[in-house]
Amino acid sequence: MKKLxxxxxxxxxxxxxxxxxxxxxxxxxxxxxxxxxxxxTREVVNNVNQDVLILGSxxxxxxxxxxxxxxxxxxxxxxxxxxxxxxxxxxxxLNYILAHYTPKIVCLDLITxxxxxxxxxxxxxxxxxxxxxxxxxxxxxxxxDGSYWKYQxxxxxxxxxxxxxxxxxxxxxxxxxxxxxxxxxxxPHSYPTILRASDTPNxxxxxxxxxxxxxxNLCKTHDIRLVxxxxxxxxxxxxxxxxxxxxxxxxxxxxxxxxHTKKTFIDHPEYFxxxxxxxxKGAKLYSLIVSKDLKRIMAx
Amino acid sequence: xxxxxxxxLAFFPIVCVIYFLLPSLKSRNIxxxxxxxxxxMNWEPIYALLLLSSTLITYLAxxxxxxxxxxxxxxxxxxxxxxLNLGMLFLFKYYNFAAENLALxxxxxxxxxxxxxxxxxxxxxxxxxxxxALGYSIDVYRGKTSAEKNFFTYAxxxxxxxxxxxxxxxxxxxxxxxxxxxxxxxxxxxxxGINLMxxxxxLKLVLADRCALYVDAVFNNVSHHNGGSFLLASLIFPFQxxxxxxxxxxxxxxxxxxxxxxxxxxxxxxxxxTTVTEFWHRWHxxxxxxxxxxxxIPLGGNRVSxxxxxxxxxxxxxISGIWHxxxxxxxxxxxxxxxxxxxxxxxxxxxxxxxxxxxxxxIHWILTFCVVCLAWVFFRANNMDDAITIIKGxxxxxxxxxxxxxxxxxxxxxxxxxxxFKESIDEFGWKIxxxxxxxxxxxxxxxxxxxxxxxxxxxxxxxxxxxFQF
Lengths: 300, 470
Hints:
Chain A is α/β, with parallel strands linked by helices. Chain A has 11 helices and 7 strands. A 5-stranded parallel beta sheet of chain A has the order 2-1-3-5-7.
């Protein structure tokens, strides 16, 4: 029994010490890495200070060219889109940003998975794990996911699966060439050929709807103008595909720009990389269209 | 309760502490039985009734078999046990599949009928515990083991939580006697069990679940991918399923070891096999020996005419395929393995194997690995159409494969290197031992290292074990 106690004590004490020292080292490496995801996450959490903030998933990251929108509306713009992001991460990002500045306008580029049940709905929040414990509002999402205390228990776990990207870009020191958070997709050479009908989901996730309301109320509290946008897709959507989002927009009097069910770009597959993403050519044209509508909304 | 859940990480130490604190064998067994049912009821409490039913049926049948010396009376009890258990298995696992195919067949003959659907979910581990319980019934019938009179001891044999839901499928001759003796607290057993469990977790969380990120992306979206992706996913899936299932088995064996129980080995480095026959001596050993003892040998085994022997092999492997799931993909997978073993038997490879030189062994190793990978496509594909699209794509539609994220691919490669190194040590008997080093510090640093690696690179929010669906 004594031998086992000594072994377990050695293992647990060593693990604790390694975890805390390792967690500290990883934090410093994380702050200095030029890994694309880590760099953008750092920017969003600490440095973003533009007038207009656009949040969304990969569609957002690839569809909105800040320089084009900025030239048109005369305000600075930041594209805060991340692959796989959903309403939970938008809520976290807004909380992180509000800790250091208040944007004038927030545009939410929404997709159906922002209000429907999906597998692993909290998957996209884990890129913010290094910041656990630093913002009450954002921590609320980690608590809802059940990962908060895991990240508190192990500081190294906050960098789970990020280590390789962190270290690979620690040595290659260059600033990723973003146009204020925009990731361009280069000419894919082949474009989608089959125009499919998109599924109309009916499995509403009450927690996501709850966070959408929280997001709206947070904007209202800080006097931020909110706009809902649905980007174009190379799919045919039924008119009620975004009805739950339209209803919420109506309830709060939020402008709702729908470029999907209105079939914008549907006759131009050459602007798409795949059914859900525009490549750079399409994104530039789309940004011009969006900026005109934004200008109109701002004038109201 | 999943082995890779925090719930289990709390449950297991508590069970161990209470287990060793209890003074008598009887109290320990009853406690383990309660813990095992608690473990099982975490999925769907109502399905514990199925586990209990199977236990009761086989327990009473064994008592009946033991009571009568006459073979025909014994047979009545055995057949009763087989029919009731397999009936339960059929109803929950195969009925919908059979009904669907029957309706389809009849519709092709111009008879349209609507078969009623059975709407219950498949109970976790049903094939495992029913086969373990049936093995006991047959062993009692054959006189290989005596009927267990103590119901609680027998119920514990069927429901022992480490191996309840995904094996190893234990034999009554090995596990049952272990519940009749007190297992003293042993530092060596605990440390050795922890080592096995940790390596199991490594295989599951670092290798299998990382591979799953790529494999699932391809196999679940077949229409979006080209042959390059199919080829890469088909090369990665064998390691995913190996890490997943052998990882589970090691955690089960390790957990039992901590409490002083010895479960049978379930995997013996299968991808080092140089023939498909050898692969089945190394892969899911508890199931393949179950089929050998209770299906293949009763059919006549290899002590019959050559055509009959081929029939026996095919029948055994088709049944093995069906055991895995109610889908044509599993039947095709089992049939492929059956055909390949018949071919090997016909070519006499099993007898010649020991005479092969290094180069021949190497060529046969590559050949075996390739055909096993190809057969896995049917095992993993969601349906036959997907499987055919994937196989066709691998030959006719080769293109640049889809790469999810480069770090994921690098992490898969590193995990594979580590596993290959560890397995090579065991396979070739290299004189390198870290986990069993004579130095206390090295043994403990190994444990710490594995835990840190899992925390840093494991997929800790991954899904359940693949074999739970069987």
